[in-house]
Amino acid sequence: MSRWITRFFFLVFQMGLAGLVAADDVERPNIIFIMADDLGFNQIGAYGDTPIKTPNLDQIAENGIRFTQAYSGNTVCSPSRVSLFTGRDGRLMENNSNTVQLKDIDVTMAHVLKHAGYDTALFGKYSIGSQMGVTDPLAMGFDTWFGMYSILEGHRQYPTILWQDGVKQRIEANEGEKKGAYAQELFTEKAIDYIEGEHENPFFVVLSYSSPHAELAVPKKYSDPYESVFPAKPYTGMSTGEASDKYAWYYPEPVANPHATFAGMVTALDDYVGQVVETLKAKGLADNTLIFFTSDNGPHDEGGGAPEFFRASEPYKGMKRDVYDGGIHVPMIVSWPQAITQGRVDDTPWAFADVLPTLADVAGVSLNSVPRVKTNGVSVAGLFQDEPDVIPERVLYWEFGKQAGDPNSGIVGEVFQAARRGPWKAVRYGMEAPVELYRIDKDPGESEELSKQHPKVHQEFVSLFEEHKG
Fold first, then answer.
1. Structural domain of 349
2. Please, are residues 208 and 149 in contact by the beta-carbon 8 Å criterion?
3. Are 116 and 199 a contacting pair, CB within 8 Å?
4. Which end of the chain is more exposed for a tag (fewer CB within 10 A), N or C?
5. 410 and 292, same structural domain?
6. Which long-range contacts link 16-22 to residues 24+ away (Cβ below 8 Å)?
7. How far apart are CA 343 and CA 289, in angstroms?
8. C-alpha–C-alpha distance, residues 117 and 115, integer Å
9. Are the CB atoms for 108 and 116 separated by under 8 Å?
10. Are 166 and 134 in contact (CB under 8 A)?
């Protein structure tokens, strides 16, 4: 795309953002969306009192925007990613369970940015395709990709195969039960190679880590500093011949110190993000690169994860597979030095469904010009500046289908619902269960149920849930 068209698009974006920066000084930004897997709200230093060291992310948060009221698309991985990629929440998703996948007619944020003239790439966990060549990343708007395609592949930190543009790649360093190539490091190296390459267009990179999701494993240089910090409570897996927890059948390998290992996994991610930022600086791209860092859902308790030990969800209630805030309330850090020159904390509620329209806004492309796009998110690009716009109050909505085989099922086959409007949050655990109402701004732990005290507000959520029942 020619330089004057690029400037025109960004000028239009500028006008919408009330004079963000001078048109002569900027071009549309490169965009990097970094997502961790099952990282809890309170497991980054910038968000709380965690003993886990995350200096790079803390620095990005200090200089950028630390959003305190950001939400994932769902409480488990695949539907959350579908929401992110398509800009749709539970009201527009046909089967909001833990096996949701993209369809060949879906329009993704990568499609939208290709339409805007961006180069696009994905590195890491995909987990939302059903057929290579039909719903793999190349078919869904990405020029290139490297990583894990299926849900099952995303559960291993030292995989024996990965994929490059749809072609299976042997990872010989991990064959024969060796652990020579850590998946997250491979993803980072590929992303850095891509960033360091020559690009005539701005680029859009999704760097989708499969950590700190179980299994618990990390290079020792990251876990060793925590060995003396945390008590050595072994996760025995299946080593004793009996399951040490309900997930041991799936994560059978023992871990000598799961707390130190988990903390090391988070610190490793922090190091990898720091490497990406340093690459941008070395290339002279840091100022005009828009970076997101978030998690796909709340923390897990699988394979020795122990979210209660790390107070992973605090101050929120629940964890992965819950529609209480602990399962969907995620860290969200945004950095764009050319537009965000002063670090701040922002309390605006928004969710993954808003990312696609936001990126379209940033790229200067009207969604009306993109065929078949279907989103009910809104752009929050007006927040990405020193004097942020006000995003009008609206309803955020989630639903999650519990399924057979889920150790946390409780009610197999039921659908859990949640919604938030302003300070109010409602949840329903099963279609015949009562709708619970909470004042989330005053009661983030969702401990005081208020349906009887506020019947009018409660009925509004009941009506919403009934509208989307089944």
1. 3-18+28-391
2. no
3. no
4. C
5. no
6. 16/361, 16/381, 16/382, 17/381, 17/382, 17/384, 17/385, 17/389, 18/387, 18/389, 20/339, 20/385, 21/338, 21/339
7. 16
8. 5
9. no
10. no
| CATH number of the domain that residue 137 is part of | 3.40.720.10
Q: What angle do CA 63, 69, 70 make, to 5 degrees?
A: 80
What's the angle, vertex CA 74, arms to CA 336 and CA 39, rounded to 5? 60
Closest to 400 in 3D by CA, of 411, 390, 389, 387: 411
248 near 198, Cβ under 8 Å?
no
Please report where in the chains the tokens 């701040």 appear, as a residue. Answer: 344
167 class by beta-carbon count within 10 Å (0-12 exposed, 13-18 middle, 19+ buried)? exposed
Placement of tokens 């809890």 in the chain? 40
Report the distance separating Cα 59 and Cα 45, nearest Å: 10
Residues 362 and 290 in one domain: yes
Start-to-end CA span in the chain (Å): 46
User: Cis link prior to 392 (omega < 30° from 0)?
Assistant: no
- Distance between CA atoms of residues 220 and 113, nearest Å: 39
DSSP-based three-state secondary structure for 89 = coil
- Does position 277 have pLDDT exceeding 80, yes or no? yes
Which two structure tokens, joined as six digits, stand for 269?
A: 């991610």
Q: What's the Cα-to-Cα distance from 326 to each of 158, 313, 314, 323, rounded to whole Å?
A: 28, 5, 7, 7
Strand, coil or helix: what is 438?
A: strand
Is the same domain home to 404 and 382?
no
**314 and 225 within one domain:** yes
> Over 90: is that where the pLDDT of 444 sits?
yes
Q: Which pLDDT belongs to residue 22?
A: 32
Last residue of a domain, one of 391, 415, 445: 391
pLDDT tens-digit readout, 112-169: 999 999 999 999 999 999 999 999 999 999 999 999 999 888 899 999 999 999 999 9
Q: Is the pLDDT of residue 244 over 70?
A: no
Measured at the CA of 333, the angle between CA 114 and CA 337, to 5 degrees, comes to 70
Q: What values do phi and psi take at 207, rounded to 5?
A: -110, 100
- For residue 243, the model assigns a pLDDT of 60
Number of domains in the chain: 2
Strands (E), 26-79: 30-36, 65-67, 70-71
| 432 exposure class (CB count in 10 Å sphere: 0-12, 13-18, 19+) | exposed
